[in-house]
Amino acid sequence: MKRVTVFASGSGSNFQALIDANRLSKLNCSIAGLIAGSPDIGAIAKADTAGIPHAVLRKQDFPSRDTFVAELQKTLRTWETDWIVLAGYIRKLPDEIIAAYRGRIINIHPSLLPKFGGKGFYGLFVHEAVLAAREQETGCTVHFVDEIFDHGAVIAQRRVPVFPEDTAASLQARVLKEEHELLPLTLQNLLQRES
Ligand code: GRF
């Protein structure tokens, strides 16, 4: 059974969607652990409730970049990680980690990439930009992670309409609902392809 480590920096609703899908035996993987980008985030509480180990790893808490990367590598090794899922992780992963897991790291992003991706496009900023550009539709994307933010090959997308009365928050909620289906489904397909 493949072992998946999830990285998150926020409420962890996508992380929860993975936990739920796995409980329903849809993923057939083991969620090995959560690497949290900050303490006190919702994702940690969700890990605790599900009995999944977590580690809070932030560059600023380490004496150097190298010691931070070494700790990330050690944690991934300890959890015997086969796949990495970025589920709302707002930092850039160190290149060493990307190289070690190339083709086995995916990210979920709340827009139809390549539109509205890259540095600064996170949270409500993405949906505000979609509204400002008067887009008729938006959506979410699961893609492989490479060294450039929100840039790796697209694996799957879901589209949702943008309505005239939408706010960034209403759009975010509509997109998030699709994310919760798309992320587990895409991971399931990738894991099945490997087995
Ligand atoms: C999601 O919109 C995801 O696409 C983006 O960050 C958000 C995380 O939300 N990368 P949550 O923490 O999973 O609720």
Any overview of this molecule?
By secondary structure, the chain is of the alpha/beta class. The chain is 39% helix and 21% strand. It has helices spanning 13-23, 42-50, 65-78, 95-100, 124-132, 168-194, and strands at 3-8, 30-36, 54-56, 83-86, 105-109, 137-144, 154-161. It has a 7-stranded mixed β-sheet with strand order 3-2-1-4-5-6-7, with helices on one face. Helix 1 (13-23) packs across helix 6 and helix 5 packs across helix 6. The radius of gyration is 16 Å and the shape is globular. The chain starts with a strand and ends with a helix. The model has no long low-confidence stretch (mean pLDDT 97). The structure holds 5-O-phosphono-beta-D-ribofuranosylamine. The site of 5-O-phosphono-beta-D-ribofuranosylamine (GRF) has 15 residues, from helix 1, strand 5 and helix 6. 5-O-phosphono-beta-D-ribofuranosylamine binds at residues 8, 10-15, 87-88, 108-110, 140, 176, 179.
- Major sheet strand order: 3-2-1-4-5-6-7
Radius of gyration: 16 Å
Shape verdict: globular
Quaternary assembly: single chain
Number of strands: 7
Sketch the major β-sheet: 7 strands, mixed
List the keywords:
195 residues, single chain, 6 helices, alpha/beta, seven-stranded mixed β-sheet, globular
Task: Note the topology.
Elements: E1 3-8, H1 13-23, E2 30-36, H2 42-50, E3 54-56, H3 65-78, E4 83-86, H4 95-100, E5 105-109, H5 124-132, E6 137-144, E7 154-161, H6 168-194
Parallel strand pairs: 1-2, 1-4, 2-3, 4-5
Antiparallel strand pairs: 5-6, 6-7
Helix pairs in contact: 1-2, 1-6, 5-6
Bound molecules: 5-O-phosphono-beta-D-ribofuranosylamine.
